[in-house]
Design a protein that fits this description.
2 copies of one chain form a homodimer.
Chain A: H1 5-11, H2 16-29, H3 35-44, H4 52-63, H5 71-93, E1 97-98, E2 101-102, H6 104-107, H7 110-129, H8 135-156, H9 165-189, H10 195-222, H11 225-228, H12 234-238, H13 243-251, H14 254-265, H15 272-279, H16 282-303, H17 311-325
Helix pairs in contact in A: 2-5, 4-5, 4-9, 4-17, 5-7, 5-9, 8-9, 9-10, 10-16, 13-16, 14-15, 16-17
Chain lengths: ~325, ~325
C-alpha cells in the first residue's frame, strides 16, 4: 500500500467538518494586525501538511463519544504548536527545503524564524486559555515542555553511536510522540474526567507517534529528495544517529564502525547516506526499524478495542496503516 | 544618582520574602531530570540580573493590598518568560557577552539556545496553568504574543531611518513594556476583579517599561563594554535605529543622513558608535531620548497616587528613579 494524500483525506471523512472548523480557527487566530506577521503566516500556511495531529484530536473525540464544540479549537491549538516546532526545527536543522516550500529561515533569516515560532507558541497558548476547561492548557504546556527536553537531549546526543535503543526511543518519544499522545488524550477526555480512557488513548497516541518518528528516520535515509518533498539525509549531516544506523553500528566490527563514524564526520563528503549504505548493513537496519514501528502500531491498534466500533475507530486503525506505509 | 545593585536590593526590602520564594519556585521548576537541561539551567541562572519584573509583581500586589500566596509563583512565571526572551535574544543579536557571562549560544550553539528558550516558555506556561485563577495564563499568553509581534516588527524595521517616533515607541512598547505592564497588572488584580486598579497599574508598568527600553537604547550607544557588562553598540551593528539616532537623523541634512546610514551599513567599520557621534548630533539625540524617558516616568509615578501611601508605593516610586539613573 502506497497511500496518497487523497487516501488520507478519505480516512478523515468522519471528522471533515471538524477539520474545516479547525482550519478556520487557525486562520482567525493568525489574522494578525502586524504586517510582518501576516507575511509570515501567509508563507507558512503553505507548509500545511497532513494535519494528522489535529485529525487525531477529532477522531479520538468522536471514537470515544466525547466530541464537544471545543474540539476543533483544541485541534487548532495542537496544530499551531506543531507548526511552531516545525518553524523552530528549520532554524535548527538548516534543512533546505520543507515540503517543497522554502523554509522560513531561507526567505527571512534565523532571527525571524525564532520569533515567528515563539509567536505561534504564544498564539496557541493564548487560544488554549480561552477554552472552558483548563485541561487543554495543562496537557499541552506539559507536552511542550517534554518536546523541548526531547529536542535538547537529542542535540546533546549527536554523534553518539553507542546510544541504546531505549534511549533512542526515549528521545524520539519525547520530541515527537508526546504531541500525538496529548492530541489523543485531549480528544478522548476533554473537558475532564474519563481518566482511564484518556490514559488508554494517550498510550495509543504515544505508540503511533513513536512509530511515525521511526518511519520518519527511515525515510530520511531512504527517500530521494523528490519523494520526500523535503531535504533528506539531513540526519546524517546533522549528527543524528537514528535507529537503523544504531542497529547497523552495533553489528559492525571496529573497522566498519570507524567507517560509519566517518560517514557522519568527514568534511566535504557529498552523499553521506550512499556512502553509509556501502560501509554497513543500512537496509537491514532500516528493516529492523520498520519492524519495530510495525510492532508499536500493532500495540497501538490493539488499544482501540476499548472503543465502540464505528467510522472513527476504523479511521484510527487506518491512520496506523498510513503511518507505516507512507513514503513521504 | 548612580544606583548600584545594593540600592536596588534596598528598594525591594518590602518584598524580599516574596523574592526569595520566587527564586525558590524558579529553582524547583527548573530542577529537571534531563542532564542536558540541568546543565543549561545552571549556566543561565548566572544571568539572573535585577529580576525587576518579578519585583514589580510583588510590589504592585503589596501596594494595592492585593498580595496572595500565589504572587511569588506569578513573579516566577514572569521572570521565566523574561529569561526565555533573553535566551532567544542571544540567538538573534549575536551579542557576545551578556552580563559578563558567555551567552547560551556561545557555549552551546544557536540550536540549543532556541530549544532552551522554548523550554523556559513551556515551563512558565505549565506553572501558570497550575495557579488557582486563569488570569495569569491569559494575561501572560497575550503578553508573550505581543512581545513576539514587537520583536518581529523590529526585525522588519531594521535600517529604517525614516521611522516615526510613534512607531519606534510602539515597537519598544510591544517588545519590552508589555511584560512590565503584565507584571504590574497581575500584581494589582490577580486572581481577578479590580479592573480599574489593574488598568491603572498596567499603564504604570507600560510607561515604566517603555522608559526602561529607551534608556537601554541610550546605554547601548553610550556605555562602554565594561560599564554595561554586556555587548554595547550592537544595535547599530544589527541595524536597529533607536530613538537617539532617529532624532539626530531627522535633524541632519541629506549629506549627513548618508553618513549616518554608512555608520550602520559599511562593511568592516570598527567602532560604529564612535563614528556615528562624529557625523551627527548623537549626544543631543541621547539627551532627547532621556528627556522622553523622564516624561514617561513622571506620568508613571503620577499613577501611583491612586495607591495608599506605604513602603511598597515608595519602592515603586524609587524603581522609576532607578530606571532613569541606571548606567547598566
Amino acid at each position: 500500500m502506497k497511500p496518497d494524500p487523497q487516501q488520507l483525506q478519505q480516512l478523515l471523512a468522519p471528522v471533515q467538518d471538524g477539520m474545516k472548523r479547525m482550519r478556520e480557527v487557525i486562520a482567525l487566530q493568525l489574522a494578525d494586525a502586524s504586517p510582518a506577521v501576516r507575511d509570515m503566516v501567509e508563507h507558512v500556511s503553505r507548509f500545511q501538511g497532513k494535519q494528522l495531529r489535529a485529525a487525531l484530536v477529532l477522531l479520538c473525540g468522536d471514537a470515544s463519544s466525547n466530541s464537544t464544540d471545543e474540539h476543533a479549537s483544541i485541534a487548532a491549538v495542537v496544530e499551531m504548536i506543531h507548526l511552531a516546532t516545525l518553524v523552530h526545527d528549520d532554524v535548527l536543522d538548516g534543512a533546505k527545503v520543507r515540503r517543497r516550500v522554502a523554509c522560513v529561515n531561507e526567505r527571512w533569516d534565523n532571527q525571524v524564524a525564532v520569533l515567528f515560532g515563539d509567536y505561534l507558541y504564544a498564539r496557541a497558548f493564548a487560544l488554549s486559555t480561552d477554552l472552558s476547561s483548563r485541561l487543554c492548557s495543562r496537557v499541552l504546556a506539559e507536552a511542550t515542555r517534554r518536546i523541548c527536553i526531547g529536542e535538547i537531549e537529542q542535540a546533546a546526543s549527536r554523534y553518539d553511536f553507542e546510544m541504546s535503543q531505549e534511549r533512542y526511543e526515549w528521545i524520539a518519544g519525547a520530541k515527537t510522540a508526546t504531541l500525538y499522545a496529548a492530541a489523543c488524550e485531549l480528544g478522548a477526555r476533554y473537558p475532564g474526567g474519563h481518566e482511564s480512557m484518556g490514559a488508554n488513548m494517550r498510550q495509543f497516541g504515544y505508540e503511533l507517534g513513536l512509530a511515525f518518528q521511526i518511519i520518519d528516520d527511515c525515510l530520511d535515509l531512504t527517500a530521494s529528495l523528490e519523494q520526500a518533498g523535503k531535504s533528506v539525509g539531513t540526519d546524517v549531516a546533522d549528527g543524528k544517529v537514528t535507529l537503523p544506523v544504531l542497529w547497523a553500528y552495533r553489528r559492525a566490527d571496529e573497522a566498519r564502525r570507524a567507517q560509519i563514524r566517518d560517514c557522519y564526520t568527514l568534511a566535504g563528503l557529498e552523499d553521506r547516506v550512499a556512502r553509509l549504505s556501502e560501509v554497513c548493513e543500512l537496509s537491514a537496519g532500516v528493516e529492523f526499524a520498520r519492524a519495530r514501528a510495525n510492532e508499536l502500531l500493532r500495540s497501538a491498534v490493539a488499544r482501540l478495542a476499548l472503543l465502540p466500533p464505528g467510522a472513527s475507530r476504523s479511521a484510527l486503525e487506518s491512520v496506523a496503516g498510513f503511518v507505516l506505509a507512507r513514503d513521504h
